[in-house]
Amino acid sequence: MQPLMQSTPTPAPIPDISTLGQVFTPEPVVRCMLRLRQNAGRALEPSCGDGAFLTHLHNAVGIELDARQSPPGALNMDFFAYPESEKFDSVIGNPPYVRYQDISPATRALLRQDGFDGRSNLYLFFIEKCVRHLAPGGELIFITPRDFLKSTSARQLNRWLHERGTITHAIELGDARVFAGALPNCLIWRYELGNLSHNTAWARIGQGDDLAASLESPPWQYRHFSECAGHLLFCHGEYSLSLADVASVRVGAVSGLDAIYASETAGNRDFVTSSTARSGQTRRMIWCDAGAPAGGAAPPPRHPDRPAYPCLRREQLVAVGPRIPANRCAAGLRQHQDPSAKPLLPARLPPLRRRGDGRLPP
After folding, report:
1. Does residue 3 fall inside a structural domain?
2. Mapping DSSP to helix (H, G, I), strand (E, B) and coil, where does residue 215 land?
3. Does 188 lie in the same domain as 248?
4. Is residue 7 part of a domain?
5. Are strands 221-228 and 199-204 parallel, antiparallel or unpaired?
6. Which of 115, 152, 167, 201 is least enclosed, having the fewest CB within 10 Å?
7. pTM over the 0.85 mark
């Protein structure tokens, strides 16, 4: 009699995070997202991985690029090769998060290029294509990084989403650890095509909250779904006057070398900082004229005892002051000032002089 041979179970394939963005969805998140589903028709799970949602859905299509992970019955193919003529009442899933430079050449060749650029993460392309697969009144339910709401690379996509529908539900996960060792600041959201009410049920879950219990019963609040300059917002209400109507709003000053550029005596422009909201104080910094070179000191030639320092790039800084048209450069700011006022931008940066002890002034 031959001895019985015990079979060794095949180990599960290791997820490919960098190039395929394979971070599988925890079961509490799956259940939460399934509860957001309102349509009972045909469903799609793109990039379905191990079928976390697919196993709960009837009349559903699953698509997975990685044959090692593809569950039984799913289509083993690139989602971007799937014809857009296929329409669904629900699209649900966890799209892959892959930097543009890490997207495979084969997939990149299939991507739409209008409205995107080399900064666009792969999950943004998934959002756009999934909306195109929705039937009228269809719903898209995703968990993604929340940064697309305010990302420069998603501005055109965000305008397009706002014009065509509403994020009816949004759960901000903040710093709650949804995925082990990866990707904080996620957003669970439901988008409904053709719903222009712009009414949103919004909830926030933090690190100190019981994640499973909060996902089971989110603390919903009302928000108004708004779009401003390509940014998506969940506001307390709809306001007729926006801050952009009365002020220029930009990212705060980033010099990379405050020891040189931050100076109460040599500075010629005030900038907001991370402490301005608390203290009410701005920081005085050196601002170069828009025509000055970005990579080196302006003429005349530098004295050997004086350090060289580059001009601040205008896209790194924000001026606190009257609003000017967004398409005007910093040098054109003079045209919008009181003609009798002292020019805001000096013709040349004042040189930095060493003190007697050899150190630069603060």
Report:
1. no
2. helix
3. no
4. no
5. antiparallel
6. 152
7. no
CATH number of residue 173's parent domain: 3.40.50.150
φ, ψ at 244 (rounded to 5°) = -65, -15
The whole domain housing 330 covers: 241-362
Residue 8 domain-assigned (yes or no): no
Domain count, the chain: 2
> Which of 240, 271, 288 represents a domain boundary (last residue)?
240
Whether 11 is in a domain gets the answer no
Q: Are 224 and 238 in contact (CB under 8 A)?
A: yes
Q: Are residues 63 and 24 in the same domain?
A: yes
Torsion of CA 31, 35, 38, 40, to 10 degrees: 50
Residue-level pLDDT, tens digit, the chain, 362 residues: 444 444 444 444 444 444 444 467 889 999 999 999 999 999 999 989 888 899 899 899 999 998 888 888 999 999 999 999 999 999 999 999 999 999 999 999 999 988 888 889 999 999 999 999 999 999 999 999 999 999 989 999 999 999 999 999 999 987 766 766 555 689 999 999 999 999 999 999 987 788 889 999 999 999 999 998 899 999 998 777 777 788 776 666 667 778 888 888 888 888 887 778 788 888 888 887 655 554 444 444 444 444 444 444 433 334 344 443 443 333 333 334 444 444 444 444 444 444 444 444 44
The SS3 of residue 233 is strand
Q: Which residue is associated with the tokens 């082990």?
A: 180
Strand-pairing partners, residue 225, are 234
